[in-house]
Design brief:
The structure holds two protein chains of two kinds. Chain A is 0% helix and 50% strand. Chain A is an all-beta fold.
């Protein structure tokens, strides 16, 4: 079955360490997204990519970095510059084009990062 | 700028009772509107979407939503709630055109509790 796989499910990090969250999709979607979720704040967009080797900053990109070397993969690195990284991170993808299907997001199960 | 407001942070209903979750949006053109549901520690699942046409849309799990342009609203309804509906519900708005804006703006969510 097609879908989005995020790993790890849970991750603990010491302050000052960089960590990378994995996101892989087999839906043949061109666009991929990273959202951060905090209690009471909904989902906030970190980065998104509409095509391989291209990505754009979202609303809260500071302290994060991404790469898009393959269509299937969109890893997120949480750097030591992110001051409050403890959160639930969600990866999503959407179909190609600019029509209605391109706005329908399919989500992974999320990764919970805790900074100790 | 686009925005989404979910005025109810937390709602409790009795099993078998009807449900309405409110969503108001701000957008300069005809928006694409969505409702997603999230179980604890999981990703988001699409319940239903509105792109155009009939303003009453049907979704999965017996949910429906009505687009009211005059009120800038897209409220979610279910005639009879089941205990398994307990979850967090997110309303989202997206641009319907333009390759650079294939991303959604989410509300802060409404947490639904179902009591026996």
């Amino acid at each position: 079955d097609g879908g989005i796989t995020q790993s790890p499910k849970y991750l603990f990090r010491k302050e000052g360490q960089n960590v990378t969250l994995s996101c892989e999709q087999n839906l043949n979607h061109d666009a991929m997204y990273w959202y951060r979720q905090d209690p009471g704040q909904g989902l906030r967009l970190i980065y998104y990519s509409q095509i391989v080797n291209d990505f754009q900053k979202g609303d809260i990109a500071e302290g994060y970095s991404v790469s898009r070397e393959k269509k299937e993969s969109f890893p997120l690195t949480v750097t030591s510059a992110q001051k409050n990284p403890t959160a639930f991170y969600l990866c999503a993808s959407s179909a190609p084009g600019t029509g209605s299907g391109a706005n329908v997001l399919t989500f992974g199960a999320g990764s919970r990062l805790t900074v100790l | 700028a686009q925005s989404v407001t979910q005025p109810d942070i937390h709602i409790t209903v009795s099993e078998g009772a009807s449900l309405e979750l409110r969503c108001n949006y701000s957008y300069g053109a005809t928006p694409y509107l969505f409702w997603y549901v999230q179980s604890p520690g999981q990703g988001l699942q699409l319940l239903l979407k509105y792109f155009s046409g009939d303003t009453l849309v049907q979704g999965i799990k017996g949910f429906e939503a009505e687009f009211k342009r005059s009120q800038s609203s897209f409220n979610l309804r279910k005639p009879s709630v089941h205990w398994s509906d307990a979850a967090e519900y997110f309303c989202a708005v997206g641009a319907g055109y333009g390759g650079a804006t294939n991303k959604l703006i989410f509300g802060t969510g409404t947490l639904l509790a179902v009591q026996p």
